[in-house]
Amino acid sequence: MIYAAVLGYGTVGSGVVELLDRNRDKIAKGVGDEVAVKYILDVREFPDSPYASLFVKDFAVIEADPEVAVVVETIGGVGVAQTFTRRALEAGKSVVTSNKELVSEFGCELLALGKEHHACYLFEASVGGGVPILHPISVCLNGDELTEVYGIVNGTTNYILTQMIQNGLSFETALRQAQELGYAERNPSADVNGVDTCRKICILADLAFGKNIAPSTVRTEGIADIQMADIAAAASIHAHIKLIGRTVRGEDGRIASYVAPHVLLMENLLAHVEDVFNGIVVKGGATGETMFYGKGAGKMPTATAVVSDICEALRRCRAEAFPHWEMAGEEVLADPDELVNRWYIRANMDHDEAAVLFGDVTVLQTDENGTAFLTGPMSGFACAEKLEGVDALAVYRVLE
Ligand code: HSE
């Protein structure tokens, strides 16, 4: 019998306990031994839970128990979650987590700490919820030189945008539903303002390019400023506005990462990713494009990724195969405005003025909200230069 301890009995933590129980036999076959939860750590009381006898309040009990091989950290944040993660790794216990804040801020150090103590630190559930994406990037696509990763990686904002646009729900109602469904962060402003997407794109960049990209270096914009006029203009060509996290490695090795709403033309498969679903595109020199799709948030999809990592930790530790990336300096960071793409612009100007400024443009709509048009490909710098002195009401990158 192999024992796990679960820290934090919230949405994901309770899903992990339930799934380990429900899929006990299958997990035992995959790991080569039965896996059971020995402790659940939470400051709250759960007297009616079928697992009530497993609850403890003191992490030292878990830390000191040699039978606990894997610690599941589903507390969230970078406070006690970080302290307990460090203590568990130092005690030689593998740690598995869904905590994207901790991984994006301190993953590089925690991986090194784990390696030092022959313990795994695994976090598949931190990006994409139930969508396998980190393991495919670091293992299955390891043979390729990756050049770009971009995608819809926040289920809450995608759910809100879908419900507002397709079902006419208000922002507040759609957000409340996302909270009730267990998609949103405890403080949903991290979803809405793009911070959650920023953390996830950092983790994707870290693994894809092997360099630590700190969230504080990533320009981040959320969905709060998206206007109905732009949603309607995009819809006139069956395009969709989506919140995208993107990281690109140039030929000089520098990495540009950012989070912003984009206009996705209908040819782009991500334009059709709706509700809580996430979609992530990975580009490699040899593979070309690979796309990953599935439920990006919610109790059981996320718990599945955590439980799969528990099994992986138990297998990997035996082989001493630890993933890692290295700390990186400023020289690695590129400005996203260097990236070239078409642009969606809505501005107080007519077709002729747009054509004088941008050359060949595709006009989507002209009405009291201004003229909405698509430009040809140009860098963010070139676009900003052309827009100097212009009353631009919306400017989004276009993904085709
Ligand atoms: N709040 C996150 C989301 C949860 O909506 O995507 C999954 O990481």
Task: Give a brief outline of the structure.
With 400 residues, this protein is α/β, with parallel strands linked by helices. The protein contains 14 helices and 18 strands. The model has no long low-confidence stretch (mean pLDDT 96).
CATH superfamily of the largest domain: Dihydrodipicolinate Reductase, domain 2
Domains, number: 3
User: What is the total tally of β strands?
Assistant: 18
What small molecules are bound in this structure? L-homoserine
Overall shape = elongated
Helical content band: 25-40%
What name does CATH use for the topology of the largest domain? Dihydrodipicolinate Reductase, domain 2
Note the main sheet: 10 strands, mixed
State the low-pLDDT regions, or none: none
CA-atom Rg in angstroms? 23 Å
* SS content category: alpha/beta
CATH class of the largest domain: Alpha Beta
How many helical elements? 14
Textual characterization of the structure:
- It contains 14 helices and 18 strands.
- It has 400 residues and is α/β, with parallel strands linked by helices.
- Strand 4 (68-73), helix 4 and strand 5 form a beta-alpha-beta unit.
- The chain binds L-homoserine.
- The site of L-homoserine has 11 residues, from helix 7.
Identify the notable features of this structure and list them briefly.
400 residues, 14 helices, six-stranded parallel sheet, alpha/beta, Alpha-Beta Plaits, Dihydrodipicolinate Reductase, domain 2, binds L-homoserine, Rossmann fold, 3 domains
